[in-house]
Amino acid sequence: MSTENKKIPVITKIETQKRAGRYNVYLDGRYAFPVSEDVLVRFRLFKGSEVDDNLREQLENADQQSQAWGVALGYISYQQRTEKETVDYLVKKRV
Fold first, then answer.
1. What is the pLDDT of residues 62-79, one digit of tens each?
2. Model's pTM, two decimal places?
3. DSSP labels for 13-35?
């Protein structure tokens, strides 16, 4: 199939999840993937935006980084941690 004939998916709906700061993104009426509020704002996602394969990969990577950042902040918020402790914790959490 040539790239000229390939239809680029369009965001048809963005809905909030039960978890605060998380959103479900629907492409062409079908659930596609979740994103954090940070990613939603940073990439300026809104209904009607086109999401090609490259952008989708960027969104998924950015969301993983956002989740890792949130886990790390939660871990260090209770007491001071060394860099090694934080890295070990993130590895343990598979982030």
1. 999 999 998 999 999 989
2. 0.78
3. EEEE-SSTTEEEEEETTEEEEEE
